[in-house]
């Protein structure tokens, strides 16, 4: 069934947002696009979006505003700023934040927006830039059922597994649990590749074999090839994962839940950033193992 055409204000046109907004255009929605980087707005306007020069302009006349921003402070700026969504809400009175940010901050913004008559849904995503491009993201949404149902026609333009997981903040909680697994899984893959390499096995073949068995994972499938070839190109940056691991630990500390494996892998991500890898893709975590195992020189030039 064709979805009703909506007007979507889209704020944050980076690695993920530009693909998600382009898919909304392809799905037949009208998009009003804004980013602090004007060239990002121009690129989306070239695909048919209406360029906006501010948050308020993106929200003007929109049924829904979607935000896809780096971290909590940027989402707060877009909500509370002088021309922000609290002061200049979309006509449809619904904001869907798809960034990964702190659940506690989501609940605060949800309450403040609700007091002004605007609903907020937290709807973070998993699936990386490939999932964003293919419109196959997994979307985990927190907020009222009414807000979820209203957002569905737009969410369906960006993802395939779309689930209402609870009240405000619950989407972010589930996303942070996802990130904890991704980080520790990547660490496990680094260890297996480091050991396999030292023993002289063919790593490409080993990856294919493992993908057919119980060690298979999204990380091994999608990031394994770049880890093996030494391609550190950004998709999901080390810096963004460090932000997520910080959010995981802040949440866990507040609930007194010990997460020793998360703490260990966070140290390795910090090591990666200290060695200048913050802007590289997550697969560059393997370079920490290159250094630990004396393979750093051998891995250079990849
Ligand atoms: P990104 O840094 O590539 O994009 C963020 C965009 O927001 C940039 O274009 C930036 O200019 C813009 N921006 C920053 N502050 C702004 C403001 N105040 N107003 C308007 N625009 C502003 O990040 P990304 O990789 O697209 O990730 C976005 C969010 O999605 C993050 O929270 C990230 O953790 C999450 N995420 C990323 C991936 C991934 O694989 N990259 C996967 C899942 C979730």
UniProtKB/TrEMBL annotation:
Alphabetical keyword list: NAD, Oxidoreductase
PANTHER family on file: 3-HYDROXYISOBUTYRATE DEHYDROGENASE-LIKE 1, MITOCHONDRIAL-RELATED
Gene Ontology BP annotations: organic acid catabolic process
Organism: Inquilinus limosus
Positions annotated as active site in the UniProt record: 175
InterPro entries referenced in this protein's UniProt entry, alphabetically: 3-OH-isobutyrate_DH-rel_CS, 6-PGluconate_DH-like_C_sf, 6PGD_dom2, 6PGDH_NADP-bd, HIBADH-like_NADP-bd, HIBADH-related, NAD(P)-bd_dom_sf
Pfam families noted in UniProt: NAD_binding_11, NAD_binding_2
Gene Ontology molecular function terms on file: NAD binding; NADP binding; oxidoreductase activity
Protein name as it appears in the record: 6-phosphogluconate dehydrogenase
SUPFAM superfamilies with a match to the protein in the record: 6-phosphogluconate dehydrogenase C-terminal domain-like, NAD(P)-binding Rossmann-fold domains
6-phosphogluconate dehydrogenase NADP-binding domain span: 7-166
Family: Belongs to the HIBADH-related family.
Residues of the 3-hydroxyisobutyrate dehydrogenase-like NAD-binding domain: 169-289
